[in-house]
Amino acid sequence: MRSFVSPFAASAAFAIIVLSSSAASAETAAEPPVICAALTVAAPAKLIASCSALIDNPATPEADRLDAMVTRAAALHGNGQTDKALAEIDAVIARDPNRARAFRARGEILRTSGKKEAAFESLNQAIRLEPDNANGYESRGNVFNNAGKYDRAIQDYDEALRLKPDFAQAFSDRGAAWYFKGEYQKAIADYDEAIRLEPNRARSYTNRGAAYKKLGRIERALDDETAAIRIDPSQPEFFDNRGLSLAGNGDYKQAIVDYNEAIKIRPEAKFLTNRGDAYQAIKDYDRAIADYDAAVRLDSTFQRAYNNRGAAWRGKGDRARAMQDYAEAVRLNPSDKTAAENYQQIALEVERLGALTTQTNLPSFNCATAKRPVEKAICADPGLARLDRDINDVFLRAIASAEADSHRAALALTQQQRDFIEKRNASFGRHSYDLRQAMAERLEKLNTIARP
């Protein structure tokens, strides 16, 4: 997606959310008791309880008990108990090694756990056992999709649809494969069919909206994302996606409203960063920086937050902090051309401003020959330059005073100063290192030593 913040910010990211054969939603008081059956839509805890009652009932036939165990395993996985879920599936297979549904369930659990190779093995076995079951091809297509093998995914979805022409989920997931291939019109056609077959599947709407957004049809994207929220307002990604569309349309204030909702449901680094981008677009740099700070606290490796926070610091005129953040963004992802260009631009700006800095704002070293990024940052910032000069001045006074009393004390003080500079040079650019604070603390310490 094209960046909506500015040329210096990394493009805001959105994703086709999750490829799955079913989606769970919260029950309401008006819903009937939960039935332990395949593809039952219910809260995992309630489904586990329903299936457990069936499994523990001595009157339950063996075949029904094994089916209930597979259903319970899927619910356990949905409840965050993946190891227990896989153990349950293994127990079913041990008792009936020809039960294809157990292999399909294990494949889905492994796929959503990121274990693609193991998922392939289970789903291949499921297809061998039941070659005419569309669900096996649909599930294996999802693994190919997750692995970036979109043509192979489409082949599996085609086979699933040949076996089951009204398979709405297969249309929706094939639409995702077309989307990832950049075939947005084909993706929309598949989402159209998925929505025709199942008009209440929220993810089909938000994913179709993503395809419309790629084609620049923002109003259609907004319609779809609004429909997804209306159907299922519990998913923060739906609000985030609509926020991105609103921001792409220049409506940053309304985008912030949607980001607020996403963050309220589930705080994530990407949601906070997107809201920070919207604040930055309206030049509310302090709020933007607060959101980027919160994002990196949640995920210290979320590279886009550093890059975009660097842009916000640059907007505030704090080139030193901008340079630190851009440096961290490049370190986290050296292949990010946007971050690399941002770093190069700010480094050149720092160097140019350093050369133009007046004599009264010069630090203790020669900016014309400065090579280290930290030195260039000091040269570019009058406040940092003054701190550096003051540190040097107070250090020289402290050395003179120490030498008068003890040569050894003077040598120790010199080593302390060298240690400070070496740590400053090595630490600059790390997100946890505040150059201004470190220099201020060093100056305070030297002043304490230099006082008579």
Automatic annotation (TrEMBL):
Cellular component terms per the entry's GO annotation: cell outer membrane
Signal in keyword set: yes
InterPro entries assigned: TPR-like_helical_dom_sf, TPR_2, TPR_rpt, Ycf3
Domain of life: Bacteria
PROSITE patterns hit by this protein: TPR (PS50005), TPR_REGION (PS50293)
Keywords: Repeat, Signal, TPR repeat
Pfam family, one: TPR_11
Renumbered ranges of TPR repeats: 100-133, 134-167, 168-201, 202-235, 269-302, 303-336
Signal peptide per UniProt: 1-26
GO biological process, one term: receptor-mediated virion attachment to host cell
PANTHER family, per the entry: TETRATRICOPEPTIDE REPEAT PROTEIN 6, UDP-N-ACETYLGLUCOSAMINE--PEPTIDE N-ACETYLGLUCOSAMINYLTRANSFERASE SPINDLY-RELATED
Protein name in UniProt: Tetratricopeptide repeat-containing protein
